[in-house]
Structures are given as C-alpha cells and as structure tokens.
Amino acid sequence: MTSFSVNAYLTAHMRTVPDWPAPGVQFRDITPLLQNPQVFRVMIDAFVHRYMAPELRPDVVAGLDARGFILGAVVAYELNIGFVPIRKKGKLPFTTVEETYELEYGSATVELHTDAVKPGDRVLLIDDLIATGGTMMAGKKLLEKLGATVVEGAAIVDLPELGGSDKLRASGLSLFTLVDFAGH
After folding, report:
1. Localized where (predicted)?
2. Can you give the residue range of the structural domain that contains 49?
3. Would you say residue 1 lies in a domain?
4. Structural Rg of the chain based on CA atoms
C-alpha cells in the first residue's frame, strides 16, 4: 500500500500564477482546490479529522474574509458547530468590535459582531493562506477581546518566507497548514 500525502496531493492541484498581482510575485491560487469535488473533500476532511480530536475540538469556527468563509463554514458544518464571519470593516450590520492591522501599503480593519462568541469559547480561526500574518493576528485579537480562546489558526497554505507563520507562533498561536511553500 502506498502512503497518501495530503500536502503533495493538494500542491499538485494548486495553480501558481507568476507575476500576479505584481511582477516577481508567485501567486498561489487555491481556486482549483475548490472546483474539483474530490480535491475539495480531501482538503476539508483533513481539517475536519484534525478538529474532531477532543484536545483540539472547537466550540465555534471563525472564518476570515473572504476565502476563510468557504473553508470555515464547511468545516463548522461537518463538526456540527457554529460559524462566525470576521469581515472587512463596514460589512456587518450589528454592533461590532474592530481591529486594524498593517498591510504592505497602508492598513485594513476587520470586524466581528460583539455576540459572535462568548467568554471561554474555544475557537478555530481559519483562512486560505498565511502570508504576513496580519489578518489572522487581527482575527485572533478580535476573538480574544470578546473573551474567547483561539485554540489554533488553520490555513490551506503557509508562505513561510513572508514571516507570518513565525510572527503568529511568536504570539502564542498554534498553527496548522496543509501546504507549505517554503523554498518553492
């Protein structure tokens, strides 16, 4: 029997777009993972099986705008727990808390409804990709402002050369990713 590598399988189905959105950037496109139902199931199952473990099982999944919504909602559904969106500023209709973070050129702000989580809730924070770590760090801070504990940050792809995963781990956040593009 041959062993199956989720990392290799997903990597083989991803698309790299050179020089997008700027010259020299190798854009890691996850949309092919979503388009193929078998690949999508392998990816979601990898997350779901991990978070079924009692020590990692969350009370709720929080997804980061916007591709974290796709993953997070399906993972939450499969785990039979709730899902909360962390949105870009101005998109949520109820009372919110907000967190601003720095981008390469400027800043951005994300928001969360004040009743999205309760103090003591164990939260899985999920997104498609970890680059500089700013969005996930802002999401972690928002959840903690409301008294929740982020049990882990999860993403399909880690781009470690951009330093985000190191920064997130240094903040005390445990991370889980399916594909690592170190040295690629």
Report:
1. Cytoplasm
2. 6-180
3. no
4. 16
